[in-house]
Protein: 3-hydroxyisobutyrate dehydrogenase
Amino acid sequence: MEQPDIDIGWVGLGNAGYPMAACLAKKGHRLLVRDADPARGIEFVQEYPKCRVATSDPDSFQNCDILVTMLPDGKVVYKVLLGEDGIAPHLKPGSVVIDTSSSSPFDTRALGLELSRLRVDLVDSPITQEQLHAIDRGAATLMVGTDSAEALEKVMPILEDMSNHVFPMGQLGSGHTMKTLNNYVSVGSIIALNDALVTGQKLGLDPQTMIDVMNLGTGVNFSTMYSQKNLKSNDTGYQLELLVKDVKIAKDVIEKSGFHTELPALAEKYLENSLKVVEKGADHTESLKSWEQRAGVEIKRTSDQAIER
Structure:
């Protein structure tokens, strides 16, 4: 079906932003795109000729009804929208910003208040995915929060063209609350898997066989099924430093809810230790290296021949 002639602005064409924007372009939407790396924008419009690259001017998105941000964290989102050369003051009244980044829900609510003074609505719609690279085929999961029923109605067709799974969660910030709690559960499985792999190998178990068993048992989780399914160098697109950032957000959210648990602080400690032994930009699966150091073992990696069998 032909889409309405809506100009959609898009800021952030990274590992997640590029395929998400592509989902809209494939549905016929015209996007005005920008990335910190200009080459990414050029590459995108070459692949999707109906789209175009925004200039670096802060008013380049002034004709857009909807602006989508997919950026590393809430601080970057704030800088892009309300910093020295911020986009938001130049957006037309009644426009909507959809923040799909992974941010603190408290920062999101504060940002929403500032944008409302400009008569711009904010919708938080972070993502998760059931399978690795599900985002590439429009099968990511969106968790949506907003204080405006009108804004939600306006953006839902866009969100549904971006993904098959869209869950309105409640007020502004509730999408980011759900995202951080989802990530917190995932972090628990990552840490438990690392514990299990080094312990199992120390006691004579084969790590790859352990994962094969878990994937047919109650230990199955996203890491065993996808990011660590084969114990070799992985590139999931989810950096370890971003995982640490998400743990810190989860810790803050849990503490401010009034609930006490010691696990978030432990997770933060273990993963920050991992950051010290990997190169900058390392994939989160490389966190296993710090477990290997503490355990005094080197996990046997899976050969390509074994994977093919």
In short: The longest strand covers residues 165-170. The chain is about 45% helix and 10% strand. The longest helix spans residues 174-202. Strands lie at 7-11, 30-34, 52-53, 66-69, 96-99, 121-124, 127-128, 141-145, 165-170.
